[in-house]
Structure formats: C-alpha cells, structure tokens
Predict the structure.
Amino acid sequence: MRPHPLVPWCLLFCLAFVTSARAEGGLNPWLQARSREHSVWMAEQEHRTEANSLALWRERPPGKGAEIPEFVPPTSLAPLIRAVEASVVRITTLNAQSRFGVAGRSTGSGFVLTPDGLVVTNNHVVARAQSIDVGLSDGREFPAEVVGRDASTDVALLRLRGVGPAPLPAVYLGDSDRLEVGDWVVAIGNPFGLDHSVSHGMISAKERVLGVDVFDDFIQTDALINPGNSGGPLFNMHGEVVGVNTAIMSQGQGIGFAVPINLVKDLLPNLRENGRLERGWLGVDVDDAHAGQVERYLVVKHVYRRSPAAEAGIRSGDQVLAVNGKTIDSYLQLLRKVALLAPGTETKLTLMREGAKQEVAVKLAARPAPETLQALASPGNMDELGLVLKDLSPEVAASTGNTAYSGALVTGVVPRSPAAQAGVTAGDVITEVNRRRVKDVAGVRAILERGEVGTNVLLRVQRGDVQQYLALAP
C-alpha cells in the first residue's frame, strides 16, 4: 500500500514543532495541559457510561460486599452432621408374604426419639412387617415392635427391645412452623441400602397438598430423597428434626416431601396411648373468613348440641383464632389440629367474642363416623335428640324392606346424645312420637316443635319385626 501524500508533510510539521518547543522549554507544560484535558474527558465518558447502565441495573461500588441482613453464607456442614448422625437408624423389615408366596425384605430409615428406645419412622415402612430390626450407626442392632401407626399421616412409632440401661442418642425436635422457604436443611437416611447417606438442600415450599388425605401438609425440599430415605429425619441448621422424609415425585428430580414435625408432635401421644389415630372431635361447623390483612380467623356457624364445643360454651358467631396457642388460618388447619388429638384431650381455644379475646378449655370427644357427620348436615338432622332421619320414599323402602312412608328411617345417631343413651340405633324406623303416628321426617319435626322444651320424648320404633317404646330425655 502507498502512503498518503500528506503523511510526510505531517511528520515534518510535528518534528519542527517539537524542536521549536524544546528550544523554548515549553514542551512539558503543553503535555501536562493536554493530559489534564484527557483526564477530564475520560471522567465524563465514565460518568456517561455509568448513568446509562444505571437505567438498566444496579451494581455495588467496587470493594463493597453484599449487605443482606441476617444472611451468613454456609461453609461446611460436617460439624452438624457429626452431631446428629448417631441418632439416625436403619430399619429392615421382613414383610408378609405376597400373593405369590414370597416374603419380601425392605429397608427404610428412622430416628431415635427418646433415650429409652422409641423410634419414629413412616407407616409404609412397617405396615406389612412381620419382624422389624433397627440398626444404629455404631453397629448395634435391636429388634423392634410397633407401638402405633397411622396411614393417613404416614407416621409410625416403634419401641426397641433389649436396649439396656445405657441411653440411646436421641434427637432434638424443632419447630416446623418457623421454617421459611430458602432455609437450609439436611436429610440423612439409607437410600438403596447405603447407610447414613447425607444430602442437603433447602425448603422449596410449605403446606404442599398432594391429594393423599385431609392431613396433607407436606414440606417440599430439594434435599435428595430416594427409596430407603423414608422415615428418616430432615434437620435444620440447629441440628433439630423439622420433618420426617416421606415421599418423592417420580416425574422430577430434587422434589421431595416431609411430614412437618409439629404435626408429628400432635400425633405421637395419640399413637403411644391408643396405638392408632383416635381422632378428636370439637363439634362445630365453621366458615373461613378474614379480618382485614392483619389477622385471620374462622367464624363458628353452628354448634352441635351436647358436643364438646357446646359443653364448653362456644356459640355461633364466635371467631376461632388459635388452638393451643397456634394460629389457625383455615378450616383444614382446624380439622388437622383437632383430629390429631386423642379423645379426652383438654384443648385450649382462643376465641374472639364481641370484640374481646378469651381462652376456652374444651375436652374433645371421639370423632363420629364420616357417614354420621355427613348425615348431621342433612335436612333430617334432629339435633336436639341426636337423631338423623330420612324419609321412607318408595326407593328407600324397597331397599330396606319397609313400607313406603310408614315412618322415618334412622340413618345416624350422635354419640352421647339422648337417642344414643336411650338405645336408638341406625336402621330403626320411628312410627310414633309422643303417641302420635308419623309417616315421614316432617311429621316427626312438627310434633317435636309443638312439644314443650326440655320434656321427655317418647318414641315408638320398629326394629325388624319388633316394636318398642323408647324414652328420650333432651
């Protein structure tokens, strides 16, 4: 390439200028002035660039680190794992024979609840077990028996046999209600028979409903949970158990579920005393409602006669705020909280009545069968007597072997009610009330409404081929 014809002239000019400036001693001041001008220009360019970038994103000034309150980046989990791993156990079961005549062997996980040998695991780990062996991390093994188990929550309580006087390494239980999405957790168990495998992750979500049961209230975590982890503990960063690892989602990876430990706390006394979930009953119907954006509550719309709630003085219109000090936000939360408690348990409800808070002690009763509860909400509910009635329509009469509209069919009896105490049973047909003939539910209700409040009620009932009189004391 040929140089531009003006290039030689420019070089001669610069050389002459530099020679002249050197002769006059003015080169340094000139360079300094040009340097200052260049610095100012560069600063303007940097400011302009920074202003443009701030319109799209923010960056911290150089040398300033992250300033997120209460956030401490995790380092090693080894000290925590060393402190808690001895309480995690391996559970091996010899299961009942299948339909092919083969007795299967399976493994799961669990954790030591008490130093004298109570162990928590999943119900599905031991549901079909004919024999159970529990192994500790130090090599000791013990036979175990089921103290109690519940399929609806998938929780089981075991007792080790032959433990001896030396205490076992028991866990500490935490507060799962205080968990937040993003909290770090550690899962320890025996996936695929690999003893004391550790995985870690965080809380991905809370109160997950999987459609298994009304007690669905799972913690979702991305800490790896695999077959064999079932029944093992989910630890928080304080080394406390906050969940019982239970389920995985086969369609995805890093999606596991654990039963919240607070639910397990409510259930354990029931399992220890009754061997199964004896569900408590309060005896109210409620509506979900909200009071502004600060405090939520439930409104009692109906109280069943002679129910625990009625005996405790709970009224329609009362607002239920908490059960045993735990805030209640929905009907399902109230149902879970009460149903997990054993009948006979004294429970404290926090109510709002006419603008004033008050504590009410309620002694729970046994929860009636689902069919009875459903019937109690039907138009044939004779609440004052504890009877649930149904018309003997031609279809109903044909299926029960009765004559159509020959009386009112008893389809349910409320426990501890006057009808139950008098001996009325489901399947009876009421043909007379206070010696007046009745042919349907409306006839029974009309006679009861004409009677005096609090007086005895005389029923004539037909039970198969036998008719008898029964006196009910409301």
Observations:
- The chain has a mean pLDDT of 81.
- The longest helix spans residues 27-54.
- The two ends are 118 Å apart (CA to CA).
- Residues 113 and 119 are 5 Å apart (CA to CA).
